[in-house]
Description:
The complex is a heterodimer of chains A (309) and B (250).
Chain A: E1 2-6, H1 17-28, E2 31-38, H2 42-49, E3 56-61, H3 70-80, E4 86-90, H4 93-106, E5 111-114, E6 116-119, E7 122-127, E8 132-138, E9 143-147, E10 163-165, E11 175-182, E12 195-199, H5 206-220, E13 223-226, H6 228-232, E14 253-257, H7 263-269, E15 274-279, H8 286-289, E16 292-295, H9 298-308
Helix pairs in contact in A: 3-4, 5-9
Chain B: E1 2-6, E2 9-11, E3 33-35, H1 37-51, E4 57-64, H2 68-77, E5 82-87, H3 95-109, E6 113-117, H4 128-136, E7 139-150, E8 153-160, E9 163-170, E10 173-177, H5 189-195, E11 200-203, E12 216-222, E13 232-233, H6 236-246
Parallel strand pairs in B: 1-4, 1-6, 4-5, 5-11, 6-10, 7-10
Antiparallel strand pairs in B: 2-3, 7-8, 8-9
Amino acid sequence: MTILVIAEHDHASLKGVTRNTLAAAQKIGGEVHVLVAGSNAAAAAAEAGKLAGVAKVLLADAPHYADQTAENLAALVVSLAANYSHVLAPASVFGKNFLPRVAGLLDVQQISDVIAVNSADTFVRPIYAGNALATVQSADKVKVVSVRPTAFEAVGDGGAAPVENVAAAADTGLARLVGREIVKSERPELGAAKIVVSGGRGLGSGENYKKLLEPLADKLSAALGASRAAVDAGYVPNDYQVGQTGKIVAPQLYIAIGISGAIQHLAGMKDSKVIVAINKNEDEPIFQVADYGLVADLNEAVPQLIAAL
Amino acid sequence: MKVLVPVKRVADKDVKVRPKADETGVDLANVKMSINPFDENAVEEAVRLKEKGVATEVVVVSVGPEKAKDTLISALAVGADRAILVDAGETEVQPLAVAKLIKAVADKEQPQLVIFGRQAIDDDSAQTGQVFAALQGWGQATFASKVEVADGKAKVSREIDGGLETLELALPAVISADLRLNEPRYAKLPDVMKAKKKPLETVKPGDLGVDIAPRLKTLKVSEPPKRQGGGKVADVAELVNKLKNVAKVI
């Protein structure tokens, strides 16, 4: 049994979720290889070689992996898949985009967003926004699995695996990247932050979100998040969204401000270690999951909180 | 240009679904069912493409039980022209099989664009659009927030970590709709009445030559561990004190 983990990286370094995905691979057991598909990605491959428990790193280095398009990544993974019992990737925007293509080309049913490994063929995954957990068993010859990063503790360093170059697959030419607009942020990444400050519809506007939540996040060195309602209302971009169809987070501390606590939102944050809720309506469902609920007007409470920290 | 939009009948987003006591599945008895929310965005985008004169016909397709006709009618009511039900009865159809069924429909209908919702909110797999794209050998743009179609190409903005990326795909291609692609319109009652008169064709998975036997065996469906919440603090001072001295998280 040999498992292939697809690394998420920016060519220069690995994204943290690669370490969590590796942890899931190690729960399955057997030899673990990591694939780094990139352009001038030797640095990311070298980093992958240092991860604990990795037997081998495969580096496919070609210009057509620069943009990480799903079509080209999937073609490469499929060209390698015959040697593997399992193919794993993080259930991040990156993994969700390309991994189902791999499953389709291999004619296997992907297992999405697993939160536990029961055995080499049996996995647990949340359904219905986490209101139920399905235990599923796969009979497919290759198990294609996306892994919920917050459910597995990141693997540390300590390995010394060799990096082996593998041939790139042909450029499919099916999609062309026209451009990327990435907002540079000094804040920690939402999916990996120790503290998350998150705002909802109760903030009333994008200006108020900025005015109240940014200084609080600055004080706590926290990442900023939001409910789907706040994203829907246009207060913040979609990549702030925490929930069933946004990011799944499990920080040490999650502060929900002006968030009612719809099922879809709870799906993304209820595994946080400590949850604080600030909302003026004490009947909101968010208080049922909060360790510390403060029934108060957020326009008064948040500035007080900033001053008290 | 023809646009095909697959839609799914799911438990309504405001329903809190629970596992059955015997853990064989979830309890959907007497649960309100609706069109999957992201599929509404997909239908809306297709209808807008038609209104702009880019698309000539919008065909909606659903894989599900006979009652999925209601889902198709809700899509017809907001402007789709024609509907196809792939009647799988009460059998569970997993994403790979759904993608194969949609492929069989697409092979016949020859759409230039297929717009899926980014994920169905019942099984949360978020796979079908990408699997379909792979089976067709077409390009894909998932989690789309903006779509422009011109000169045989689709230019699609997608929301990714930290911002946006724009992809250009040659048609035919696959798009999956995210939340901010558009704001779906509501159907007016007369439109619902008219929708019932629009063409709705029913086919069986067997007619399409697709094996829909599940690949994944569900061993059990159970309740997630319950979180102990409900604690309250009186004011900000108490909150800060608890976070510093009891929870020790700041």
